[in-house]
Design a protein that fits this description.
binds zinc ion
């Protein structure tokens, strides 16, 4: 049984291509300079249509999390973390926290991105706790 895979659209393709290269990239608006996640055709802040892709640090802090005790299918081995990460660049992403046992993570913990192969050519950005 396979995990659910995110749809790859014309708009989001650069994001997924960057993940395959081991790089986290976000869209930056050429009108207001702000970053956004998830990928969209226009800027979610000002409606600008000029969006460029730029690499970001992949470092951030846990804004919130939940621990899923029962996976949605056998492909999802529970328990696992679903997290909201505030990136250093000011963008919030939903993702997973890996290499972490329940009880080890807390809100505000420093995290960094890594990339996980989900099969069929899909590589997803996930996070792990960062020592420091
Ligand atoms: Zn904008």
């Amino acid at each position: 049984m396979n995990k659910l895979l995110p749809p790859e659209t014309e708009v989001s393709r650069p994001f997924w291509d960057a993940c395959k290269q081991g790089e986290l990239q976000l869209q930056q608006c050429q009108s207001c300079d702000r970053l956004q996640f998830y990928p969209r055709a226009i800027c979610s802040h000002c409606g600008g249509e000029g969006l460029l892709w730029r690499p970001v640090s992949g470092r951030g802090k846990l804004a919130s999390y939940t621990i899923v005790q029962r996976g949605i299918s056998r492909a999802y081995e529970a328990p696992y973390y679903v997290v909201l990460v505030d990136l250093e660049e000011g963008v919030r992403m939903m993702s997973s926290l890996v290499e972490c046992e329940p009880g080890e993570a807390e809100v505000g913990a420093k995290v960094e991105v890594l990339f996980q192969d989900w099969g069929e050519g899909h590589v997803l950005p996930v996070f792990k706790l960062r020592d420091e």
